[in-house]
Amino acid sequence: MTALDFTHDPRRRSWVTSAGPDSEFPLQNLPFGVVAGAAGEARGVVRIGDMALDLSGLAASGLLDGEAQVAAETAADGTLNALFALGSGPRTALRRALHTLLAEGAPQQEAVAALLTPLPDVEVLLPARIGDYTDFYVGIHHARNVGALFRPDNPLLPNYKWVPIGYHGRASSVRVSGAPVTRPHGQLKAPDAQAPVLAPTRRLDFELELGVWIGPENRLGTSVRIDDAESHIAGYCLLNDWSARDVQAWEYQPLGPFLAKSFGTTVSPWVITPEALAPFRIPFDRADDDPAPLPYLDSPRHRTGGGLGIELEVHLRTARMRADGDAPIPISRSSSRHMYWTVAQLVTHHTSNGCNLRSGDLLGSGTLSGPDAGSEGSLLELSRGGTAPITLPNGEKRTFLEDGDEIRLRARAQRPGAATIGFGECVAVIDPAITYP
C-alpha cells in the first residue's frame, strides 16, 4: 500500500488558479484521463483543477527524466492501457514530478502553463480500452435490502459472507460520463401473464458503484496473493451499472444477469490513483459473529488498511427540472466503508482460479448502499421494490427512472489533515427506447 510523502501534504498549493483548496482536483489528486482536442486526436492528460495537462507535450519538454519520463511517454497516446501496465513505480515517479512542476513557486511554471488546456475546450473520453468487465456484489446492505424484497425470512444467500460474488459484464457497452443511455428492450413477464412479451423496460434503475481499473496483468494459470493485489490496481472511478429490474427478474435464473445489464454501464472519466487515495485507507474488519475470510483472502497487512473511506452521492434531475432550471437533488448518500469485501479481495478472488486479468480491465464493486434510510444505492431499494415512490421537491414522483431523467454520481475522499480528493461526476440521461423492428 502506498506510503504518504510530500505529494499528500495538504499545505502545498498549485499555481493553477482553479486547483485551490475547494477544488475536487487539487495538487494532491492529479488523476489521469484521455481527451480529444479540436483536431480530434486522443491524448493522455493529467487533470489539475479545471485544466488538462498534455502528457505528450510534457514528455517532449525535457522537464522529466527517469521513470517519470517513461510514464509520460507511455501515457501520451489515446489510451492509458500501457501506463496501467507499468505499475506503481513509474506512475508514482510521474506523480512526484508533476507535483513539483505544478506547485507554487515552481521555476518551470511558464513552460508547464503552455501545456494546459481548459477542460471545456476538450472532449473527455474513456481512459482505456476495456478488454473485460466484471461486476461484483460487495455492498452487504444492498444485498440485504434486495434479498428482503424476495426472501424476507432469509435475505442473504448462504455463500454471501464466504465468497465475493460477481458476474462477467459486457465491456462493449461501457461509456464515459455524459453519454446518454437508451432505455433497453427485454422480455417482460407479469406474474399473472401466460407468456412474456418483448417491450421496453418499465423498471429502469441506477446502481451506485465504485469502479476499479486493473494495472499490471497476471499470467493465465497464476493467481495474485492478497498482499500483492494492490500492486495490480491502476486506479478508481465512479461506475453506474444500469439495470432493467423487470427484465432481470424474468431472465436471471439459472445463469444470472444478461440483457438486464449488458445494455449500458457509465463510468467517470478520471482515473483516481491509489497514491491519491493513500490518506484514506481504513482497516478491514468484520463483525465478531461473521465468519473470518478464508486464508487466501486475509492477512495482517490487509486487515490494517485494506478498506477505503470515500463518501458517495446520487443526484437526480428530471426533464421537467431541467426545463425549469432546477438543480439536481440528492436522493442518496453512502460510503465505500460499507463494502463487505475489499478491492484487494476482489482481485485476489478473481484470479484464484488462474483467471488472467489484463491492463485496462474494469471491475465494479456492486451497489454500495448504506445501513440507513437515504443511503440506498438504487431506486429498487429507495422505492421498496416500486411500492413506495419517492417524491421530489417539485411534486414529481419516481419508483423507477423515466425517459429524460438524469442521474449524477459524485464522490469525495476527505478527512481532517488531508486534502480532499474528488472523483468528478458520472452522469447520463435516459433516452427513449428505440422502435423495435
What does this molecule look like?
The protein is an alpha+beta fold and 437 residues long. It has two domains: 6-125, Fumarylacetoacetase, N-terminal domain (SH3 type barrels, Roll); 133-431, Alpha-Beta Complex (Fumarylacetoacetate hydrolase, domain 2). The chain is built from twelve helices and 25 strands. A seven-stranded mixed β-sheet has the order 7-6-21-13-14-16-8. Strands 4-3-2-1-5 form a five-stranded antiparallel β-sheet. The longest helix is centred in the first third of the chain and has 15 residues, at 88-102. The mean pLDDT is 96. Residues 28-127 form the Fumarylacetoacetase N-terminal domain. Its cofactor is Mg(2+); Ca(2+). GO terms for molecular function: fumarylacetoacetase activity; metal ion binding.
Keywords, please?
single chain; about 425 residues; alpha+beta; SH3 type barrels; Fumarylacetoacetate hydrolase, domain 2; 2 domains; seven-stranded mixed β-sheet; five-stranded antiparallel β-sheet; 12 helices; 25 strands; about 20% helix
Summarize it.
With 437 residues, the chain is of the alpha+beta class. It is 20% helix and 25% strand.
Kindly give the count of domains.
Answer: 2
**Major sheet attributes:** 7 strands, mixed
> How many individual β-strands?
25
Indicate the CATH architecture of the largest domain: Alpha-Beta Complex
What does the radius of gyration come to? 22 Å
Give the overall form.
Answer: globular
Proportion in β-strands: 15-25%
Strand order of the largest sheet: 7-6-21-13-14-16-8
Helix content range: 10-25%
Annotated CATH homologous superfamily of the largest domain: Fumarylacetoacetase-like, C-terminal domain
Q: Catalogue the unreliable spans.
A: none
Count of separate DSSP helical elements: 12
Separation, N- and C-terminal Cα atoms? 53 Å
Structural class: alpha+beta
